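Example S7 (C-alpha cells).
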C-alpha cells in the first residue's frame, strides 16, 4: 500500500493595485468628488470673504471637473504609465462634456431651490389663493388647481386623438391621406405655443361672439393643439417597434386585425406609449403664452373650466414677477416658489413615466 502525500492549496498572493500598475476601481469617482470638494471649498471661502455674492454652484462643478481631468491624468501617469493615462484623460474629457451639458440644469434647480424654498415651505402657499392679498402672505392654491384641471382636460382630449392617429398611420395608413397626416403632424410639432393660444382665442371668440372671452377650457384646447403632435409622434414610433412576427402570428391564428391591435400591438408597446404621453404632458404644463391669452389670470379660486378666468402656475409665476406690489420681495418669493412647484410636478411626471414603463414593459424570458 502506497501512501500519497496531499498538499493543501495555497492561497493566491495578495497584490496591491497601486504596486501592480493599476488604479483601484473607484479611483475616478473618488478623484472627481475630491475635485468638486476642493473647488467648492474655494468658492465657499470667496463667499465668506465677500468677494462673491453667493455660492457659485456652476463654477464649482465646471472648474472641479477641469481639476479632475488634470488630477486623474497625473495620477494615472504616475501609477499606470503614459498609455493608460491618455485613455483616462480622454474619458475625463467626455465627463467634462457631460457636466457642461448639465450645467444649465444644475444652475436652474439650485437657484430655484435657494430662492423658492422659503415661500414653498410656508403652509399658506398650498392652502390659500391671492384674493385680497397685496403684500406678504397668500398662496398659489388657485394656480395649482387651475394647472391640474386645464392640463387634465387637455390630456383627456389629446391622448385618444393622438393615439388613434398613430394607430392609423402605423397599421392602416397608406397613400396620400397618410402622407398628408404625417406632414401636418410635423408642421404642428414646430408651431410656436403662442400660435396655439391665438387659435383657441380666435375660435371661441367667433363661436361665442365675445372678443374678450377668457376661460379655462379654452386653455385646455390650446394645450391640446400642442400635445397632439407629440402624442402622435411618440406613439407612432413605439408602435413601429412592435415586431411584425407578433402580428403575423395573430393573423395566422385567425385573429382579426382590430383585435390584434387591441390585444397584441398595444400591450406590447404600452410602456413606451405611456412614457410618450407623460413627456407630452411635461412639455405643455409649463406653457405661459397660450394660457395667458385664452385663460387669463385671476387671484381667486375657480373650479369651473367653462366660466370666468382661471389661473395656472406658469401665469402665476409671470404675474407675480411682472406685477410687483409695494412688498417686492414677497412677490419675488412667491414667483420662485411657483417655479419650484412646477419643476417638482414635471419631475414627478417623469418619474411616474419611468415607473410605468418599468411595470408595463414586456418581460422577456431567456
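Recovered sequence:
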Amino acid at each position: 500500500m502506497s501512501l500519497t502525500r496531499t498538499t493543501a492549496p495555497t492561497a493566491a498572493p495578495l497584490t496591491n493595485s497601486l504596486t501592480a500598475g493599476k488604479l483601484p476601481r473607484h479611483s475616478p469617482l473618488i478623484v472627481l468628488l475630491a475635485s468638486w470638494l476642493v473647488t467648492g471649498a474655494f468658492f465657499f471661502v470667496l463667499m465668506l470673504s465677500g468677494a462673491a455674492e453667493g455660492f457659485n454652484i456652476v463654477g464649482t462643478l465646471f472648474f472641479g471637473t477641469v481639476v479632475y481631468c488634470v488630477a486623474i491624468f497625473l495620477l494615472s501617469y504616475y501609477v499606470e504609465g503614459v498609455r493608460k493615462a491618455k485613455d483616462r484623460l480622454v474619458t475625463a474629457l467626455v465627463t467634462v462634456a457631460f457636466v457642461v451639458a448639465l450645467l444649465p440644469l444644475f444652475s436652474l434647480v439650485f437657484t430655484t431651490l435657494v430662492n423658492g424654498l422659503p415661500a414653498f415651505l410656508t403652509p399658506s402657499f398650498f392652502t390659500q389663493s391671492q384674493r385680497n392679498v397685496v403684500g406678504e402672505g397668500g398662496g398659489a392654491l388657485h394656480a395649482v388647481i387651475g394647472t391640474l384641471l386645464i392640463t387634465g382636460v387637455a390630456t383627456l382630449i389629446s391622448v385618444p386623438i393622438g393615439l388613434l392617429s398613430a394607430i392609423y398611420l402605423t397599421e392602416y395608413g397608406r397613400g396620400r391621406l397618410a402622407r398628408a397626416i404625417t406632414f401636418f403632424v410635423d408642421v404642428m410639432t414646430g408651431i410656436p405655443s403662442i400660435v396655439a393660444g391665438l387659435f383657441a382665442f380666435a375660435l371661441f371668440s367667433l363661436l361665442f361672439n365675445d372678443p374678450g372671452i377668457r376661460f379655462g377650457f379654452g386653455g385646455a384646447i390650446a394645450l391640446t393643439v400642442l400635445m397632439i403632435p407629440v402624442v402622435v409622434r411618440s406613439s407612432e414610433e413605439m408602435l413601429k417597434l412592435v415586431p411584425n412576427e407578433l402580428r403575423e402570428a395573430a393573423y395566422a391564428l385567425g385573429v382579426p386585425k382590430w383585435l390584434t391591435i387591441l390585444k397584441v400591438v398595444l400591450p406590447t408597446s404600452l410602456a413606451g406609449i405611456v412614457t410618450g404621453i407623460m413627456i407630452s404632458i411635461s412639455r405643455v404644463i409649463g406653457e405661459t403664452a397660450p394660457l395667458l391669452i385664452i385663460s387669463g389670470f385671476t387671484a381667486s379660486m375657480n373650479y369651473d373650466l367653462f366660466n370666468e378666468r382661471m389661473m395656472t402656475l406658469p401665469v402665476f409665476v409671470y404675474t407675480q414677477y411682472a406685477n410687483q406690489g409695494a412688498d417686492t420681495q414677497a412677490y419675488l418669493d412667491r414667483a420662485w416658489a411657483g417655479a419650484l412647484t412646477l419643476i417638482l410636478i414635471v419631475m414627478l411626471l417623469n418619474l411616474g413615466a419611468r415607473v410605468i414603463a418599468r411595470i408595463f414593459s414586456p418581460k422577456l424570458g431567456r
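Notes on this example. Confidence is low (pLDDT under 50) at residues 14-18.
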